Amino acid sequence: MNAKQTRTDTPVPMTPEQQFFFDLRGWILLPEVLSTSEIEETKAEVYAGARQSYQGALQNLLDHPAVVGILNEILSEEPFVRDDCYGFRCEGSFTTVRHPGWDVSTRGDNGMPHVVRPPQQANAMRYQVAGGKIFAGLTRVVWELEEVKAGQGGTTFLSGSHKAHFNYGGPDRYRPNIGGSPWEADMREAMDEYSCPPGSVVIFTESLVHAANDWINPDNPRCAVFNCYNSIWAQWHRLNLSHEIIETMPPKRQSLFRGTWAIGGGPGGNRAYSLDNRTI
Q: To 5 degrees, how large is the angle CA 187–CA 31–CA 241?
């Protein structure tokens, strides 16, 4: 599909089973979402040096129908799900290629399990469930373009920690990682892993304790796209994408980058992206 075409594919609704496990664990895996041709096209762009998934074929992952229905369910509300705009926002994107032997020392956090904010505290990014509705706060969508084998370097999750109400034992209750906790080894041991074929997608709330790991899979690199989404009510990342790139997108896709507000602005509210109405 050409990146400048308007996607007309119907979003795939989140199933009751997916809701149950997402709420229980804080993450879900959708295996084999992309076709072989989609995998090859997007993977080639990442290996060629693409750092953001906003141009070329990678752009289509931003509002792929397999994730739009889920993001509608966990980040939006019915009045804001419209035909001409999305009820959630995209905050950022990066790609990664981790060759066999890559280790977490290349990261600033050295692979320390972390969250967007300490999970035992209330804040704007906090995972919530109210009135039978999930509000997942800051949400990460990871497109795995190569095979991932459990225990060989994929992202790991401390399932259920997105709903923790107590300090995880560290010296600083405001620290957004488990560093310094006397329970660190036990928490690392309890973290869940996943295996998946190329073209799969992992969706998780950033309120969940999660971690990067050394890539020890000898058969292929980790080639992945990390897209981040949020409610139209809140913002965590500063957008690092130019207006010139966004304005080449179809109007509905552009709405992923509109300003962070929801009420006012005429009868339709905040629906359309423009130079004067964009995330900064």
A: 80
pLDDT above 90 covers a percentage of the chain that reads 71
pTM over 0.90: yes
Averaged pLDDT, 105-118: 90
Tell me, what amino acid is at 149? K
Q: How far is CA 63 from CA 3, 72, 272, in A?
A: 11, 11, 16
Mind spelling out the 3-state secondary structure of 135-181? Answer: ECCCEEEEEECCCECCCCCCCEECCCHHHCCCCCCCCCCCCCECCCC
pLDDT at 2 over 60: no
Structure tokens belonging to residue 223: 């080639």
Q: Which two tokens stand for residue 91?
A: 């905050």
Burial profile 158-171: b = 16 or more Cβ within 10 angstroms, e = fewer: bbbbbbbeebbebe
